[in-house]
Structures are given as structure tokens and as C-alpha cells.
Amino acid sequence: MSKRPPIEVKIVDLLQDGKQEAMSLIYDNYGAVLFGLCVRMMPSREDAEEVFQEAMIKIWRYAQSYDADKARLYTWMMNITRNACIDQIRKNDRRPQIQDVETHVYKVDAAHHSNLPVDHIGLEKELEKLRPEDRRVLELAYFQGFTQGEIAKKLNVPLGTVKTRARKAISELKRFLARDIGS
Fold first, then answer.
1. pTM above the 0.70 mark?
2. Nearest-angstrom CA–CA distance, 183 and 180
3. What is the pLDDT of residues 126-151, one digit of tens each?
4. Nearest alpha carbon to residue 125 among 68, 176, 60, 67
5. Ramachandran region, residue 182 (left: φ > 0; alpha: ψ -120 to 50; beta: rest)
6. How far apart are CA 153 and CA 137, in angstroms?
7. 60 vs 163: CA distance, rounded Å
């Protein structure tokens, strides 16, 4: 796996030791992008704030289960946050109110700007390298919270096609990112 940024190593060590300082560092270094994801996926700012708080609690609660060999800290926290959003959407039986993925998903509100983690830089550029139909599946699944079955219905394609496109797109993104960081 690639060399991890020093701040990530410090946060992981603090989380594993149960030190609350880890949460301050997470908030300072990753809070804007995590909250930005909540804002993009949730129908209201109040819902976004509630889900963001729940995601931060889950990050703290499940810190001992984090495995640096399986995922970057940033990726792990984004998945927890995304899943918290999806859980809330399903609980409320509401869909996220994203109108234009290209102009909303990849950008963090200026009011919530902080130093974005390296993992966030260039994501839009990497997604643009994918075939449009593969990119659309990822956008629907990861940024809008649709299940693969829902995506199949929405795009009017077989479920197997959705699964293949998702698997292929993720594989290609891994290859693009590995090449870009020199792994």
C-alpha cells in the first residue's frame, strides 16, 4: 500500500488508543469533505448536520475495527459517512436531492473549505476517464445512494449489467489512481 500521510498515521494511532484528540484532528482535516458529502446526499441542511454527527459518532465507535491494510482512513470514513446518509434516506424513504452531479458532488462549499485530503484531489478528473455508462452507475450508487437493483430499473438495464459496470469502473479507478500515485 502507498505511504500514508503523517496526519493519517497520527489520527489512526490516536483512534486506536482511544484518544479523543483524534476526533478533533478528523474534524479539522476531513470534516469539510465528510460534511460536504452529507450536504450533497441529504434533502436538507438539518438532515445533513444530523447525519454528519451520527457519522462522526460511528467513526469513534468503530475505530478499533479500522484496518489500514484494507483501506485508507479517508476512504473508510467516507464509506461510514455515505452509509449513514443512505441509512437515513432509507429510514425516511426519501431520495437525495442532487440535481446536477457534475456541479455538486465533487466540490465542497466554500464556507466549509479546509485542506482537503490528498485522496480527494483529482477525483473528478479520474471519474471523467471512465466510460459514461460506467461513471453513471458509480454516481448513482456512491453519490446518490441507489442500490444496484434501483439503478438497473432507473437505467432500464439488467441487474448483471449494473454489477459488471460497477465492478469494471471501480477496477479502472483503482488502476488510474495507482498509476497516478506511483504504486
1. no
2. 8
3. 778 888 998 888 888 877 778 888 88
4. 176
5. left
6. 12
7. 32
